[in-house]
Design goal:
The chain is an alpha/beta fold. It has two domains: 297 residues, Aminopeptidase, CATH 3.40.630.10; 136 residues, Aminopeptidase i, Domain 2 (Roll), CATH 2.30.250. Helices cover 27% and strands 24% of the residues. Helix 2 crosses helix 10, helix 5 packs across helix 10 and helix 6 packs across helix 7.
């Protein structure tokens, strides 16, 4: 199978590169799920979307978004057909593996101040040490004020870091398995070392850090209790390769599919079937909670639209969901020549070979997978081939070797046709992941075709 680069002419390559620059800008401003929602709303409003605020009537051509607690988002372009007849849905998640601060994080130890953390999602803990890390998030004060925090992204900002044991003293450490080389409770971030006063005897360095937090950010120690602060790699998304064919960045999983899905729906106009895009939180820890895909948020949004478009009944809502088609827009495991043994070559996802479809995910005998029907796959093949979209079909590693999960099964449980469709990524869940610019563009094109043509 040829790569996308072999099929592109100079004009197409220019489009691909321009689109990737837009994506890199989005990533730089969306390192947390809250920031991703804010950035997405800004782009949506520029494209004519309005927040749903109980309009008198919903009609074809209307463009709405629903904001769920600033951490998940649903967008709709109302089609000519009845909503009860189903929608074309793109669904991605906007959370990524990271390191969260605990609710009582600050402590001093031998003249150094550190912050206690709890990692979020599936990570190799040893990958997160000895890196410049930025602090992103919000601090919610008792008076109702919310302080947005971004420390470590500007060149003049300080950064924080989690230490590693020097090689000279690591003989015992290196005898441990990879999962134990760095323990979860040892992921403590170093944040300061200057005491507030020479004469101060109790935790003078911690007192100085608290003084800085109060003066610079209006944050007091007890405010950490109602804060949501995340440690993420500091710095911008970068071109990878001497040919600039790839993007290396934090958060490809899954903001790479969130961005391409978002761009697809923003450019959708006058569809026959209503188009929808869901950007959810909490996928990396099971899609649970009020802002995860398992919550009632999306169904509630559809119910609101049904009530204003025609009339709401429980049966109409169920009809709408079961007659819908969905692409679970999530990344796949990109083949890595350094580690070929974990893949079965005929069914691996390769960088540069277009959007990757996974008929099933799960693990150990497809456990936890929705497993798309062949009838649905045939429909998708037809519309993609008609538009000359480059795509591939793959699975997440060898049988009994790999596996993973997405939000596909959650929507499939509502009796709709769903398949995973995303972008092959190397180094998934590492602080820096890698994807092909060609695949990013093909995914965006595929998502557009799906919204416009699937029936």
């Amino acid at each position: 199978m040829k790569t996308v680069w072999e099929k592109y002419d100079a004009k197409k390559i220019k489009k691909v590169m321009t689109f990737s620059e837009e994506y890199k800008t989005f990533l730089d401003h969306a390192k947390t799920e809250r920031e991703a929602v804010d950035a997405s709303i800004a782009l949506a409003e520029k494209a004519g979307f309005k927040e749903f605020r109980d309009p008198k009537k919903v009609k074809a051509g209307d463009r709405y978004y629903f904001n769920n607690r600033g951490k998940s988002l649903a967008l709709f372009v109302i089609g000519e057909n009845k909503l009860e007849d189903g929608m074309n849905i793109l669904g991605a998640h906007i959370d990524s593996p990271r390191i969260d601060l605990k609710q009582n994080p600050l402590y001093e130890d031998n003249g150094l101040v550190l912050m206690d953390t709890h990692y979020y999602g599936g990570i190799k803990k040893y990958q997160w040490v000895a890196l410049p890390l930025a602090i992103h998030g919000v601090v919610c004060k008792k008076d109702g004020k919310t302080i947005k925090v971004v420390i470590g992204e500007d060149e003049k900002d300080p950064v924080v870091k989690i230490s590693d044991l020097l090689i000279h003293l690591s003989r015992d450490q290196l005898q441990k398995t990879g999962s134990k080389v760095v323990e979860g409770e040892d992921l403590n971030a170093l944040v300061g070392s200057i005491p507030v006063k020479r004469e101060e005897k109790e935790e003078p360095v911690k007192k100085n850090i608290l003084k800085i937090l109060k003066e610079d950010y209006d944050i007091e120690e007890e405010d950490f209790i109602s804060a949501e602060l995340e440690l993420v790699p500091s710095g911008k998304a970068r071109d990878l390769g001497l040919d600039r064919s790839m993007v290396m960045a934090y958060g490809h999983d899954d903001r790479i599919c969130a961005f391409t899905s978002l761009m697809a729906i923003l450019e959708t106009k006058d569809p026959d079937r209503t188009s929808a895009c869901i950007l959810t939180d909490k996928e990396e820890i099971g899609s649970v909670g009020a802002t995860g895909a398992q919550s009632a948020f999306f169904e509630n949004c559809v119910a609101e639209l049904l009530e204003k478009a025609d009339s709401l009944t429980g049966l109409k809502l169920r009809h709408c969901l079961e007659r819908s088609f969905m692409l679970s827009s999530d990344v796949s495991a990109g083949f890595d020549p350094n580690y070929p043994s974990v893949n079965e070559p005929k069914n691996a996802a390769y960088l540069g070979k277009g959007i990757s479809f996974n008929k099933f995910t799960g693990s150990g005998g497809k456990g936890g997978s929705s497993d798309a029907t062949p009838e649905y796959i045939a429909k998708i093949r037809r519309i993609l081939d008609d538009k000359k979209i480059v795509y591939q079909f793959s699975e997440l590693g060898k049988v009994d070797q790999g596996g993973g999960g997405t939000i596909a099964y959650i929507l499939a449980n509502k009796n709709m046709d769903v398949i995973d469709a995303g972008i092959a990524v190397q180094n998934m869940h590492a602080p820096y992941e890698v994807a092909s610019k060609g695949d990013i563009y093909e995914a965006y094109q595929a998502y557009k075709v799906f919204l416009e043509e699937m029936a």
